[in-house]
Amino acid sequence: MTEADVIIVGAGPAGENVAGRVAAGGLSCVVVESHLAGGECSYYACMPSKALLRPMELADEVGRLPGLELGPVDVAKVLARRDEVIAHLDDSSQVEWITKQPATFVRGSGRVSGEREVEVTAPDGSVTTVRARRAVVLATGSVPVLPPIKGLAEAQPWGSREATTVKEVPARLIVLGGGVVACEMAQALHALGAGHTTMIVRGGRLLERNEPFAGELLAESMRGKGIELLFGAEASEVSRAADGTVRVTLKDGRTLEADELLVATGRKPASHDGRPIEVDESLRVPGSDWLYAVGDVNGRNLLTHMGKYQARICGDAIVARARGQEPSVLDEADKYGAPQVVFTDPQVCAVGRTEEAARAEGFDVRVVEYDLGQVSGAHLLGDGYQGRAKAVVDEGRKVLLGVTFAGPGVAELLHAATIAVTAEVPLERLWHAVPAYPTVSEIWLRLLEEYGL
């Protein structure tokens, strides 16, 4: 096909969702992908990392209950199940889903070559130009950032792809970074056999974008598992010896050695210059009536579920404009209601603003916190359950600005918080949403009681 109503460059979750929406709206569509349909999340990020973390989570849960025991982890079986989850890096089922929308799938590297035009370079080097009658959507995602450290690139460190698709777990692992990927993969690989795992964290705590207590609880757990944490440390030079050993020299002169080095220091949009592509509330690029950008490439929210949300809005907006109707637009939730889960032990999840962010924006803030371990439902989940909850309240409107949970299994509490924050449910209404007993969700009752309702 050399012409279609909509051309989508990138077949990750965001691109797929745009295709589904515009096809449902009766528009023809071409989807261009240079690697695997399904994108980073399906093969190298969300899905494989959670497949590796789930056995660790179950082992930790069993360890909190007297009378139950687990034998040693069968690493080969865990990795085999991971391979099943990522379909052995075979995207045929994803391609089939796209073509059934219906949409035309084209394997190749796409770039915008003119107004409503995309030039596609196929794997064999041949070049085709595809023209869009209505819109071109960029859904190219993001790529890892490699810090400018002497010798780092030459040492061929792991990125998230190598870590999540690991075939042999190294006995010694150094992790550079203290964010989500660094924390999740440090715990997963440590549990699977990286007995000597060291994290080099430039800042003063883990998960610096979250409430401080979340990183503190996670650091305590990591140390308890035997993971070494070096805060306020920076690498100045990296080298790899002939036998494969990686040597990391810190700025304070210390030298560390490991079998592998995982660099997890962030990502940047996969745009031509690495910068976010600016978009309006319908995901259209300002100054254009045909170019859109969804997901990581626009830099608004580097989260799969938020990219899919943007894609639904974008697809509906394109269909609406094709019909001469007013387009769909993003809700403020895209900026302040984005939920996120870190699948470590303890899990960390949050939605909305942190206390620091809310105060910086000038809100009249009141904060309430509660020990999750004191909730009856938490005690039933196992001995020594540790966790904490924090709610950030806008005192002027008596609504929640943000909520953070840290503790085993707290991810299942997050959607209720997302609804409360996004819908700006008044606290007096939340008081009448009675949580079931004995569940951990009684934390909602405890937080509201702490507030004074």
Structure explained in plain terms:
With 453 residues, this protein is α/β, with parallel strands linked by helices. 31% of the residues lie in helices and 25% in strands. Strands 1, 2, 3, 4, 5, 6 and 16 form a 7-stranded mixed β-sheet that branches. Strands 17-18-21-20-19 form a 5-stranded antiparallel β-sheet, with helices on both faces. A 4-stranded parallel β-sheet has the order 10-9-8-14. A hairpin with a 2-residue loop joins strand 4 and strand 5 (117-121). Helix 1 (13-24) packs parallel to helix 9 and helix 3 (46-63) runs antiparallel to helix 4.
Low-confidence stretches: none
CA(first)-CA(last) distance = 62 Å
Could you tell me the number of beta strands? 21
What structural class do you assign from the helix and strand content?
A: alpha/beta
User: What is the average of the pLDDT values?
Assistant: 96
Shape, per Cα inertia axes:
globular
Largest sheet: 7 strands, mixed
Strand content: 25-35%
Count, helices: 15
Radius of gyration, whole Å: 23 Å
Helical residue percent band:
25-40%
